Amino acid sequence: MADSKKHEIITFKVDETLAAAMQGIGNRSEFIRRAILAALENVCPLCLGAGTLSPEQREHWDRFSVTHKVEQCENCQAVHLVCAAAGSSEGTKNHAH
Q: Does the pTM exceed 0.70?
């Protein structure tokens, strides 16, 4: 059965250093696809990887942050959101390592 999914070709430029680093990779297209998919799994759900918030996103964040705060986990040092209404460090206390 033929692959019925549509494929789109996306190209991008790389500098000499990255090109040289990728020289020994057998299937560079597959490597890049996997790297992009892995990166997309870790994109910030709020800014979607932009690194900044739009004015509209900032308004939503300001309302959300009234009852939530950003804390650093005592165990793994990861920064995470905690519901301030549920009590301080609730997520940290239950985090197992």
A: no
Residue 10 lies in a domain: no
H-helix or E-strand spanning residue 70: strand 68-72
Report yes or no on 89 lying in a domain. yes
What is the residue range of 84's domain? Answer: 16-93
pLDDT along the chain (97 residues), means of 10: 77 94 93 92 85 92 92 92 72 51
Residue 7 lies in a domain: no
Per-residue DSSP letters for 4-53? -S----------HHHHHHTTT-S-HHHHHHHHHHHHHTTS-TTTTTSSS-
Query: Structurally, how many domains does the chain consist of?
Result: 1
What is the token pair recorded at 53? 């918030």
